[in-house]
Amino acid sequence: RAITSLEIGMQAPERSAVADTGKGGRILLVDDRESSYERLATILAAEHTVDVEPNPTEALFHAAEGNYDLLIVSLDLNNFDGLRLCSQARSLERTRHVPILAIAEAENSTRLLRGLEIGVNDYLLRPIDKTELLARARTQIRRRRYTDHLRDNVQNSIEMAITDALTGLHNRRYMESHLATLAEQASTRGKPLALMILDIDYFKSINDNYGHDAGDDVLREFAVRVRKSIRGIDLACRYGGEEFVIVMPETDLHVAGMVAERLRRSIAGEPFAVHKGTKRIEVTISIGLTTLEQKGEAVADVLKRADIALYRAKHDGRNRVVS
Ligand code: GH3
Ligand code: MG
Ligand code: MG
Ligand code: MG
Is it the case that residue 19 has pLDDT exceeding 80? Predict the structure, then answer.
């Protein structure tokens, strides 16, 4: 049974993808007999763009580079094993999802069966009927477009599931699942791991004084500044409303303290533009900082220690880093 897009929590496919005629595809025809490929190409050209490649060595290269919707491969090729092309196309990342329609003389039907085993999607026996060729080509191209569409949707859903929509940072769920992995890696490799919780000071009064939209502007701009001050391997997430967590692998307390202090200054030192740049407001943050203290320490304990440090930063007057 096919899984529908709705069941896996994404948008219903657009109508155009469902109603696709399968016409207007890009086809690579691999056949080394001139009388054969000239006829097939003429038939297919009525509905598609067709490239013919009689040279099998070139065919795989074109298939990988050419962004085709369909490969039509003759398994009767004289000096070449068409099956090998099919299996290579199946193993290459760039051609893995391109459908293959095999064609062969009836006497080569064992090759066709082998082809189906290695991932050929459909086949036709010679002599090839014009209507049937067009119909089977359309079906494969339609299927290809539809599965591409689904694959994009799945990727988008995954992105959405781990990303905070307002700031584009990772969300709490992702952080919690990933933090355990990072802590484990740090433990087994004997490397330090730093973690900080950042909380915007008096954020409620930003909302109260300038409106909720201005508060959102501040959160977005805050995320931009966070991204600028961390490395690619660091993990930044929106942990709650105006609370963020940054995890820094291979970073000790001293270095993490400098990063935190730089970040604190980058927030306090430059007012935030809100309401489409018509207004600028001063923002400060408080940061609670800690590191993984011993091998195998529970991440909940690390988070708790950072939270206690944050509480002290608030209590001691805000706009500061406490570790
Ligand atoms: P403190 O210095 O002690 O952190 O004070 P605070 O006002 O920042 O702390 P508090 O936790 O009382 O208030 C946080 C506010 O953040 C309350 C909530 O309405 C607001 N908030 C949470 N999420 C969002 C959001 O997505 N957008 C906006 N604009 N506000 C949010
Ligand atoms: Mg608070
Ligand atoms: Mg706050
Ligand atoms: Mg808070």
Answer: no
Mutational test site, ligand 1, from 199, 200, 203, 307, max ligand atoms within 8 Å of CB: 203
Residues 95-142: tens digit of each pLDDT: 999 999 999 999 988 889 999 999 999 999 999 999 999 999 999 999
Query: What is the pLDDT at residue 108?
Result: 87
Predicted local confidence at residue 81, as pLDDT: 78
- What angle separates helix 212-229 from helix 253-268, to the nearest 10 degrees? 140
- Measure the CA dihedral 24/28/33/34, to 10°: 50
242 is catalytic: yes
Is the dihedral angle over the CA atoms 179, 184, 187, 188 positive or is it negative? negative
To test ligand 1's pocket by mutation, which of 166, 204, 315 has the most ligand atoms within 8 angstroms of CB? 204
Q: Which residue has the tokens 């990342």?
A: 93
